[in-house]
User: Fold these one by one.
Assistant:
Number 1:
Amino acid sequence: MAKSKPSKTASAEEKIKEAARHVFTKKGYAATRTRDIAEEAGINLALLNYYFRSKEKLFGIVMEERMAQFFGLITPIVNDVNSTLDRKIELIVSYYVDMLLQNPDLPLFIMSELRHDSDLFRKFQVQNLIINSHLILQLKEKQPSIHPLHFVVSILGLTIFPFIAKPIIQSTDALNSQMFAAMMEERKKLVPKWAKAMIKVK
């Protein structure tokens, strides 16, 4: 049976959402106008308003996707009771490197919007994802004298911060995009080694 073609409605809605993802990520919520999104999508403003009614609704859709992309997809990793602590760290680092190489603007977008609306963490239950995870339990058992969030923040910082600092790193022309990608691939091996050293510290 031949696959049915997507409807014009579905195509228009997806064009609008894709445009919203691009514009919100580039400009942030406050600086974005619905007219900017309509222009990016190549449609008139009335059509955008017909499908989504408001900038707030579109932003909610985009932010939910971005938060799920940034935090939600590591849930199976941090809660896997059958994997070792070392393996969890390796998978987390590998996931973030691969994902951020494809979406390098994502960390700055998330940080910028969270700065303006810290309740987004509560809305998307990020605290529960981390604090109540099996990963935290393993960290407590491995090094009970140090709060496990120190390790989590350090691991994420070592992995994510280079993407935040990428414009500075590349501003001197000492590191082009290809070299940066190679450096991040190397960090897939280095960050877990550094994490193991931190966990063993007395």
Number 2:
Amino acid sequence: MIYFWYQVYNFCVQTTQRVGEILLRDFARVEASRKPDGSLVTKADKWADEELRRAVKQCFPTHGVLTEETEHILPTSEWCWVIDPIDGTTNFTRGIPIWGISIGLLYRGMPVFGFVHFPQTRQTYHGYYLANTGLTGPKGAYLNNTPIYTSSASPSPNHVVALCNRSLALLKQQLPCKVRVTGVTSYDLMSVACGATLGAIEASPKIWDIAGAYPILMGAGGCFLHLSPDSAFPLIPGKDYGSVGFPSLALAHENLIPIFKPLVAPIIPPKSVVVG
């Protein structure tokens, strides 16, 4: 099993470095079109999606793949890779240097390994979260191979919480921290994982937005509040996740839940599930 995790990590390093270097050539040089769900896509997204799917099939032929641009139905295979070829397409097209390649590895529907690479800023995160899966292997979360941990701080005007565009209505109320909006779900969750922010509120991400970030956040000591009546994980084989949202609240530690959960009530269903 140790060799397997070594293979998984090396695959992600080599593949995202290669794909990321080519994407840098298209940064701020391509135009986006709008998909039926309202999100944006470019020729660079489609190219990266194809390259990443092909690489998975070459290195892990028995594994399934679920991606933003093509494959939305979770396969029945025990292992499945969930890929967002460019998380932050709007930033990518407009010349804003916060965008990344997000990869999550599922085992029986549970995200157990995450890898998020931001080519423009040269930041690469990875992490493991094997709890309740029966798997053995590495633990923890890392930024450029240095261990990272979530913050233990309490909210104050000197701390930061990240919002998504669809949660901006929360600005009408008094928030306990300063606010940042990057437009990139994986980046927001990584900011919690590395201790830069205390929380990230994501009103409607898809599974490819969070599958790679989730194990890193959890491996760094964070918690994940799924703001939906249904459980976030495990995912269900055969289900189409193309239109399924994962409204969520990522927090640095569980003591923040009673502070932030009431604040997000205007944008969430009446029931929620805590993970971690």
Number 3:
Amino acid sequence: MKKLSVILYVVIFLAIAGLYLLHFTGNKKCSQSETGSSVPAGGIAYVNIDSIIYKFDMFTDRRNELMDKQKKAEAELTSKGSQYERGARDYQEKVQKGLVTRATAAEMEQALVQQQQELVTLRDQLQGSLIEEEQVMNRQVIDYITTFLEENKSEYNYQYIFGKSFGSVVLYSDSTLDITQKVLEALNKKYQTEKK
């Protein structure tokens, strides 16, 4: 485990050193792209990936769809849980009053156990399905963003666009390199156009 930490520190140090060299040995002048936006020395920019994702209309739409599915799943689970509880109360009542034979009580108990197992299985399936859908949604949003940046690289004219977020590898960045708002506006505009 200690060797892994040392290796990670070495990789991070080399990456930072490489960025340092790229930044300070590259062309010091800012170049002008065809659109008139200036590109900082080194061609490096960053976006706050959390802001991009949470303010991106596609993410909001997909999250709302997922929340609707979650509510439907919870309603289905609650309905089946209520059926199980009614059956359990009915069984308990009949057994306590002696209204059923032992054989019938055993059959009712077995049916309740099976119903409980089905309820647990259903809960696990619904939960697994929602988790998988959330993962797919997140990948779709990230893929849309990266594809957008690749398709519009001539407009942004950067060699590197980093994604900064809490706990990411980028620990510090100059705010003049932040293109989050510009990218977010362009993403939402493109998404709304495609949505229509």
